[in-house]
Every structure is written in structure tokens, then in C-alpha cells.
Amino acid sequence: GKVLRLHVCTMEGAEWLEEVPEDTTVEKLKERCLKHCVPGSLEDPKTVTHHKLIHATSEKVLTDTKTVLEENIQDRDVLLLIKKRAPPPLPKMADVSAEEKRKQEQKAPDKDAILKATANLPSRNVDRTVAHHNMRDFQTELRKILVSLIEVAQKLLALNPDAVELFKKANAMLDEDEEDRVDEIALRQLTEMGFPESRAVKALRLNHMSVTQAMEWLIEHADDPTVDAPLPGHTPSEATAEAGASSAEATAGPSSEAGGEEAKDELTEIFKKIRRKREFRPDPRAVIALMEMGFDEKEVVDALRVNNNQQNAACEWLLGDRKPSPEDLDKGIDTNSPLFQAILENPVVQLGLTNPKTLLAFEDMLENPLNSTQWMNDPETGPVMLQISRIFQTLNRT
């Protein structure tokens, strides 16, 4: 029969060429592959049955009893040699009994047992409701503080004659720091195996640019009807159109206005662009997992935004009373409150509000709270955040 040259890959990264007649069975081809990559493996007869060959282009698992010709394999096709995942062993009855016994021993006492054990202790009058109310959640309150401080910072920076140039530079820095880039080398490796480019891009984004994990995801979701659906938050065409519209609006401003008004309008447009680039980006894996439970995409994104991209907290929010609402996130703190007045009177905060980088940090933390650590460690924005935290903790104890 005709001799075919086949490109074989393993999950460990090994690659080689196998030359086989087209009447060779898949099982014989598998044996040759195992002999090549795992010397001595054929001594165990189970080794062959514990592996499978997959056609990379069609993503089809090859049948051992069929020949290469019957599986419609062509010259120079790419095959993947993958070890099958063994099912987890069933727990032994003795282990189950021991686990149940251990759980019973570690079980917390009920209310009656606690009252009986503490009956002889002296009682203390503590208003737990008031104590709990005073210990406000810093993250929730910080968001309101940031919303109000952003307004103050924008007004202060608008008075700076060099504000437009400063924010143009900041805007350019954000352009260089886009997270939507895809590793071209990793993408080329997947497309050369026969995977469609759009599907490979999605797999890489979901698996942090890991070729091995992306390949596993592509194989596992080969028959998934939603495998080609775009990831939430990745619609570059809309973003480009929006950015173009903003540029057009900025350019189409009336030429007869005074120079100060034009600079103010331009600064407003730059603020809008920066905020648009710092918009909240939901975790794609969390979005997919929550949508599979039956929730709508918009409410899933709202839940993740309210709960800082934490999937479990977002699920509880969706199943509960959905408080706070997404609209509550845009509300600022009472500007007449002692807390806000103390923050504005702090010299470190006052100086920081005149720095464009502080405004960028506030915008970023507002939409991506998980980035707070990055800004706390920054030499320019860290002291400002430290002062805000100290003032909050001081007033919260009083």
C-alpha cells in the first residue's frame, strides 16, 4: 500500500515523523508511537489501551481496529498521542465510615449545647447590632470615596495648563498596556495543528496563553455548539467604533470657542477615553460558568462587577436579593460627611489629587478592585491610598 508520512505530537511536547503503509491499523500505529516516545512501555499490555490517537484537524478519536486508510488519514496529517484519564477509584466502605465518624467528631455544638456550657459565666451587656453597624466594610466605603475623589481630581487637574498634554501621555501609556494581545507563537502552534484561528485565540485567552492547556480545552470542547461564541468583553469592532466616534466628537468641536473652552472639552474627551479603557472586564471563565446555570449574560456581568469578579459571591448575589445594585456602585460618599472632609484636608491627599497618575489609579481601582495592591505598592499613589485607609480606620473606631 501507499506509505504515509504522519506528524505525531504528545502532550509533553515531543514531535516526530512516522512513515506507515495506509493498510496499517491504528493500534499498530499506536504501538509504534509508544515505542518511539516511551521506551519499554509495551511490556505492559495495558499501555496501548490507556492511550489514544486523535486526528488534530478533525479532532476525531481514531478507532484501534480500523486502518489508516479507513480513518481517511492523509499524507502529512498531524496526530496527537494522548494518555486517557483514569476514572477516580471508588472509596472503600471503611474509608467512608471513618470519614463520617471524623465529621461527627468535628461537628460544631448546637445552640442548646453552647447555652448549657456557658450557663455559669457572667453575662455582659453588649449591643452587637451597634457594634456590627459601626464596623463598616472598607471595600464598599472605599468605592464611594473613590467616586467622589475622582470628581474632585478632575476639577483640580482641569485647572492645570499642562493637563491636556499630561493626559495625552497617560492615554498613550494605556494604549501600550492592552490585555487583549495574543501570543503569536502559541497561536501559530495551534493553527499548525489544524485548529481554526478564532477558536485557538479563544482557547489561549481562557487558559492564560498556555498551549498545552489550550489544546486540551479545544479537544474537550470540540463538539460544544457554543465553542465559537466570542468571549464576553472581547468585541474589538465595537470598541474601535466607539473610540472612532469619540475622536470624531473631539475633532468636530466648534472652532470659534475660546482656547480655554477647547482645552476643557478636549480634557473631557480624554477622561472619557481613559474611563472607557478602564471599563470592568469580567472573568470569561466565571461568565461561562454562571451562564451555564441559566442566568442572562448582562446580569452575570453585573453580578461579577458588584462582587469583584468572585464567581461564588456573584452566584450568591444572583440567587439572593441582588444588593447592592450595579447603580449603587456609581454613588459617591456624602461630601459633607466628617470622613470625606478629613480625607480632603489631608496634605498628602491634596498633593496626590493634582497628579494625573492618581486619577488613573482611582479609575482603575473603581472598575478593577483586584488591582488595588498594585497601586498601594506604587511610590506615587501608595502614600495617598495609605492616608485614605488610615483616616477611614481612625474615624471608624470613634
Describe what you observe in this structure.
Its main location: cytoplasm. InterPro entries: STI1_HS-bd (IPR006636), UBA (IPR015940), UBA-like_sf (IPR009060), UBA1_UBAC1 (IPR041926), UBA2_UBAC1 (IPR041927), UBAC1 (IPR052476), Ubiquitin-like_domsf (IPR029071), UBL_UBAC1 (IPR057650). With 398 residues, this protein is α+β, with helices and mostly antiparallel strands. Among the domains are: 81 residues, Phosphatidylinositol 3-kinase Catalytic Subunit, Chain A, domain 1 (Ubiquitin-like (UB roll)), CATH 3.10.20.90; 107 residues, no CATH class; 51 residues, Helicase, Ruva Protein, domain 3. The protein has a 5-stranded mixed beta sheet with strand order 2-1-5-3-4. Helix 8 packs across helix 9 and helix 11 packs antiparallel against helix 12. The longest helix has 21 residues.
What is the count of β-strands?
Answer: 5
Give the fraction of residues assigned to helices.
Answer: 40-55%
Shape: flat
If you average the pLDDT, what whole number results?
75
The profile of the biggest β sheet is: 5 strands, mixed
Judged by helices, strands and strand pairing, the structural class is: alpha+beta
Distance between the termini: 89 Å
Number of helices: 20
How much β-strand is present in the residues? Answer: 5-15%
H/E element sequence:
EEHHEEEHHHHHHHHHHHHHHHHHH
Radius of gyration based on Cα positions = 30 Å
Spans where pLDDT lies below 50 across 5 or more residues: 126-136, 236-258
Protein name: Ubiquitin-associated domain-containing protein 1
GO cellular component, one term: cytoplasm
InterPro entries: STI1_HS-bd, UBA, UBA-like_sf, UBA1_UBAC1, UBA2_UBAC1, UBAC1, Ubiquitin-like_domsf, UBL_UBAC1
Main location: cytoplasm
